[in-house]
Structure formats: C-alpha cells, structure tokens
Amino acid sequence: MEALQDYGMLLRWIHFVAGVTWIGLLWFYNYMNGPFSNALEPEVRAKVIPQIMPRTLWWFRWGAAVTWLSGVTYAYGVIARQDPEGTMHWMTETTRGQWITMGFVYGSIMAFNVWFMIWPRQQKIIRATIAGENPPEKAQWAKTATNCSRVNTYLSLPLLFAMGAGKHMGEFSLNSDMGSFWVNAVVITLIGFAVAWLFIHKVGPSVGKNFK
Known about the structure:
The chain is mainly α. It has six helices and no strands.
C-alpha cells in the first residue's frame, strides 16, 4: 500500500506539472495571443506565426496528452482501487469519485479537441503561412481551431473546480446525494462558462491597452 501511495504521489506531481503547462498555454492562446495576433499586420504575422506557434503547440498538445494519461492512471488505476466495492462504485457513488469523473469527462473532451481538432488544422495553417500561401480553406481551418479552443477554455474552469472538489468536498463519502451533485455540477459549469466568456470577450481584448 505504501508503494502504491508513493506511485500515486508521483502521478499527481506529473499531472499537476503537465496540467499547468496545458491550461496555461490554453489561456495564453485565448486571453492574450488571440488579440495580439489579430492586431498584427499580415506581413508581420507571416513572420511571427511560424516562429512561435510550432513551439507553443508542441508543449500544448503534449501537455494535454500527459495530463490526461497521468490523471486517468492516478484516478482510476490508483485511487479507485482503494474502494472495496469497486471502481464503478467509487466513480458514481462517492463524492470524490463523482467530481473527478466530471473532470475526467471535461478533460477528455478537451484532449480530443487538442489532438483531433485544433492541432491538425493549426498544422495546415502553419504550413500554408510558411509557404506564403492563402488557400480558401484557411479561414475555415482557423475558425474551427478557434472555436474548439474556445470550447476548451470554457470547460477548463469547471474542470479545475472539479479537480479541487474531488479532494476537498468530501473524502470517499459513501452516502453522497447524486441529485445534489448534479445540481452543483451544473451550477459550477455555468459559472465557469460565464467567467471564461468575460475573460475572452471583455478582459482579454482590453487589458494592458492603456499601459504607460
């Protein structure tokens, strides 16, 4: 059991480090890089994007992969195994399991978007920019990548709450109320979406503009 706990602590550390990398870059793209890139002249953008995007997207997509893999391994390969009634019981009938499962669902959607929606289209955009090309599909590639990135930003705030709630809103509470959990989950999701919307559409475009 002690070895399992040590292994779990290592996974948690990896999960935190990778998660900070992933979510930090997600917020950088949506809160800062979007307004910055839109303000650049086309010829400047053509020079900047090939330099910064491949590097940041490397950390972005692998941060997402390591976060997801380490989180799943820790939650369902280490913690859930400690429930004598089984993994499914822990996922659905314990307070900690319910919140972590909510985070797992949101995180899985986000990781899918990174690898199968955002990254493939950003590859095409970067290649076209380097080649000096402007194919008619480029605008649609950018729109799809941006929309998926926005979805991830909206999901990131309730995701982070769920990860914290898994530990601090009840420790293996076997008498948790599923109805109460779903109400809380919906409320937290809506609040997270509202905060993300404000950051993207109100705070991000205006912050720092009047710096002197």
